[in-house]
Write a structure and sequence with these properties.
With 499 residues, the chain is mostly beta strands. Helices cover 3% and strands 66% of the residues. It is built from 1 helix and 27 strands. The strands form 3 sheets. Strands 20-21-22-23-24-25-26-27 form an 8-stranded antiparallel beta barrel. The protein has an 8-stranded antiparallel β-barrel with strand order 2-3-4-5-7-8-9-10.
């Protein structure tokens, strides 16, 4: 049922994508702005209780919000040891302080929520203060990180030295409220991705694959996202994440980096491609060992409109040091944002789409656990919204627990929102309808598929910042996770130039 519902949602979204603002009403000059940004990766060995070691891989995207001060979202996950399935999502702030030419000292603080892998994380809150010493070359930097990884309500408190690498990027954007206008630009907007895909399908584990409790996992419904950037006309790299939304393994999630190739056949409307991905996955009692995961697949793709495409992908996934081996099949619904030749030095006409990012904190009331107990749980999350029309937008969200004795609980959601114009004193109202996957932390989601509806009020604090308050309901399609939810979000609106 969950898999069918998710597939219908994907098909329903496709025609709405085509309604996106594509007809510019005027051309703006000098409207584009650029913020320096950093893409940062790190790996370190964390000491767990009992002298156990866990390899932890981290990645973050940081924007320079003030001179030398960078802030943005980040995620950490287990890749070695015995705690596959540990994921933490949150926010990081870093001060990049030059010491000498080519050398910087970068103290910072990461705060996030998550857990998994039976790692003793308590409620899930993770704090990671760190100091990085970085040597810079052209556009990149490499160095050492001294850090503390601590779960205050759990049993993990470790100090370690790790390796870190960062890459300098530009985040191109416009002021908010310019959607539908066009401008001349020399590069991609926003994060620089050329397309985003919604993946809906199933995993069929190979014979002999068993879960940590010795049971067979059976067929599993899957829902996830991928964002790609083309290096040239045929080669692309991407970031992929997903979770199980049907079956007996709710709580499983994965985050991977991908590299692929793609070529047209017959015409540019029909394409075939192949990709390979590596990253971390686990949870839901799936035996992935330390969490390292590889995937590979082939696909075919049909361009339905100028912006919207659909595809079918088949492939295999394998945990490098666990028992989990599976084939998969996916339906893909995608949206083109830009194109491979957008990095040329000549200016090209692009259309602005209104967008916003938000940091969200939510309280889920009287959440039913598999143990039969009921307890509130708190999550923190990151939200990305993109306008389809002036009043309708597409929303993608990820949330993880940091309180309520549910470490390891996470939610991934996608759906539509409808907002009103500003009524008075910069106040507007709206509602979001979302569907996705949730699980972990002992929460009774029975397969993982959930739906959520949140009416909200939006208060514009100024042109660049708004406060959003919502009260709604989340419902598990099969489990007993049926709770009222209250959330507060700090949102940042802006415009993104794209094709």
């Amino acid at each position: 049922m969950a898999k069918i519902t998710l597939s219908l949602l994907g098909l329903a979204l496709a025609p709405l994508f085509a309604m996106a603002q594509t007809a510019p009403n005027s051309t703006l000059n000098n409207a584009q702005e650029v913020l320096p940004s950093i893409v940062k990766f790190g790996v370190e060995s964390v000491k767990m209780p009992g002298d156990e070691r866990m390899g932890l891989l981290g990645g973050s995207y940081l924007l320079e919000v003030s001179p030398e001060i960078f802030v943005g979202p980040g995620v950490y996950g287990s890749i070695t040891g015995n705690r596959g399935g540990l994921f933490v999502g949150g926010v990081e702030a870093t001060w990049r302080k030059p010491i000498t030419s080519g050398l910087t000292l970068e103290p910072g603080l990461y705060v996030g929520g998550g857990g998994g892998g039976s790692a003793g994380v308590g409620g899930g809150l993770m704090v990671r203060p760190h100091v990085d010493l970085m040597w810079h070359t052209k556009g990149s930097a490499f160095g050492l990180s001294v850090s503390e990884v601590r779960f205050p309500s759990g049993h993990v408190n470790s100090n370690q030295i790790g390796l870190v690498a960062s890459f300098d990027e530009d985040f191109a954007f416009t002021q908010p409220g310019l959607g539908g206008h066009s401008l001349l630009s020399t590069g991609r907007g926003g994060l620089g991705f050329d397309r985003v895909l919604l993946n809906l399908g199933s995993y069929t584990p190979r014979s002999g694959t068993v879960r940590l409790d010795g049971s067979a996992p059976g067929n599993i419904g899957y829902a996830g996202f991928r964002a790609d950037q083309f290096l040239n006309e045929h080669v692309f790299w991407g970031l992929e994440s997903g979770a199980f939304a049907h079956g007996s393994s709710d709580g499983y999630a994965e985050v991977l980096g991908a590299l692929g190739v793609e070529y047209p056949v017959v015409s540019d409307q029909f394409k075939v491609g192949a990709l390979a991905a590596v990253g971390t996955g686990g949870g839901g009692k799936i035996n992935v060992g330390g969490g390292a995961l590889i995937k590979g697949g082939v696909y075919t793709q049909w361009q339905v409109t100028k912006q919207v495409f659909v595809g079918l992908q088949v492939g295999m996934a394998d945990s490098l040091n666990g028992n989990f081996k599976t084939r998969y099949e996916m339906l893909q619904v995608g949206l083109k944002l830009d194109s491979a030749n957008s990095s040329s030095s000549s200016k090209e006409l692009r259309t602005i789409t209104n967008s916003e990012w938000a940091v969200d904190v939510a309280d889920y009331l009287k959440v039913k656990r598999y143990s039969g107990a009921q307890q509130n749980l708190e999550t923190m999350g990151f939200v990305m919204n993109r306008d389809i029309t002036d009043s309708v937008y597409l929303s993608a969200q990820a949330h993880s627990a940091f309180g309520g004795n549910a470490g390891g609980f996470s939610i991934g959601l996608v759906g539509l929102g409808v907002r009103s114009p500003e009524i008075a004193h910069s106040i507007s109202f709206g509602i979001e309808g979302l569907i996705g996957a949730a699980g972990g932390g002992g929460v009774s989601t029975q397969g993982g598929a959930v739906v959520q509806a949140i009416p909200y009020a939006n208060f514009a604090l100024n042109k660049h910042l708004a406060l959003r308050l919502g009260v709604g309901r989340i419902h598990s399609l099969k489990g007993e996770f049926n709770s009222n939810v209250a959330n507060v979000a700090l949102t940042v609106p802006f415009g993104l130039p794209g094709r």
